[in-house]
Write a structure and sequence with these properties.
The chain has 265 residues and is an alpha/beta fold. It has five helices and seven strands, in the order E-E-H-H-E-H-E-E-H-E-E-H. A seven-stranded mixed β-sheet has the order 1-3-2-4-7-5-6. Helix 2 crosses helix 5 and helix 4 packs antiparallel against helix 5. The radius of gyration is 17 Å and the shape is globular. The mean pLDDT is 97.
Length: 265
């Protein structure tokens, strides 16, 4: 079973499209450890999967020259969440949804809180994924002098039960930033690329952006920005993909890829 897919871009491109939460796949050996019913599991996957964000990323990659690199997580975030801190730095540990979730988005028990089982998941899935991303970032730096991560996500129109800041604005696009890794030129490029959307927010309802821990807050050659699209921008109420909307958003994301390529040099 594939746990991740790395799609090579142009050797001259510093840009990495990162798609961590698009999959619903749970390996058969993991399913027995999840204590929820099949119906509960399906509802949880509906709630927390960034459905079809890989399609938007694909449209973006195909629309640009040079093409960016793409790393896609092919397992559900219910296996491990590759974007969480695996230690006490993670704020969402407060609701039992750190690197290994033990609660569903509405607070039901998802799996037993077992340290040995948690460590096994981290060893088998989290750390190998992080190593691939870290190596990719290092490779892009060696080839081009920098790496630009564009972190591709979506979020529901209504707040999920686990959100730490459910009362904030929920714009069509949330741009997530990091004080060390997101320069003003990259934030401006994101605003410009998606300027046709109705409204754009910063770090609301979610903040931050992904950088592999080997490079986090230590390497100024690594830039990162998170793109969080509100799901009604490209999905129907039944979570079906609206093809033309995905293509249009992919074109906007492609403009950000182009700007990130130019700005990082």
């Amino acid at each position: 079973m594939n746990t991740r897919t790395l799609i090579a871009g142009d050797t001259t491109s510093p840009v990495i499209l990162h798609v961590p939460h698009a999959s619903r796949v749970i390996p058969p050996e993991i399913r027995p450890s999840l204590t929820v019913t099949d119906a509960q599991l399906a509802a949880e996957l509906d709630e927390i999967t960034d459905a079809h964000t890989h399609v938007i990323a694909h449209h973006a990659a195909q629309s640009t020259t040079p093409q960016p690199w793409t790393l896609r997580n092919d397992l559900s975030r219910l296996v491990i969440d590759p974007e969480r801190f695996p230690d006490k730095r993670e704020q969402l540990n407060a609701v039992d949804r750190g690197a290994v979730y033990t609660r569903t988005s509405n607070g039901d028990v998802l799996r037993r809180d077992d340290e040995d089982a948690r460590n096994a998941l981290l060893d088998n899935y989290f750390h190998p994924y992080a190593a691939v991303m870290s190596d990719l970032v290092s490779d892009r730096i060696a080839a081009t002098g920098s790496a630009v991560i564009i972190d591709v996500h979506s979020y529901p129109t209504l707040p999920s039960g686990y959100e730490l800041h459910p009362d904030g604005p929920r714009p069509a696009l949330c741009i997530g930033t990091d004080p060390y890794h997101t320069p003003q030129w990259l934030t401006g490029a994101a605003h410009a690329a998606f300027s046709s959307l109705a409204d754009i927010g910063m770090n609301t309802p979610f903040g931050g952006t992904y950088v592999p821990l080997d490079h986090y807050c230590t390497d100024p050659r690594v830039y990162s920005v998170m793109i969080e699209l509100r799901r009604d921008q490209y999905l129907t109420e039944k979570c079906e993909l609206v093809d033309i909307a995905a293509e249009n958003l992919g074109a906007m994301l492609g403009r950000l890829v182009d700007a990130a390529d130019r700005g990082s040099r």
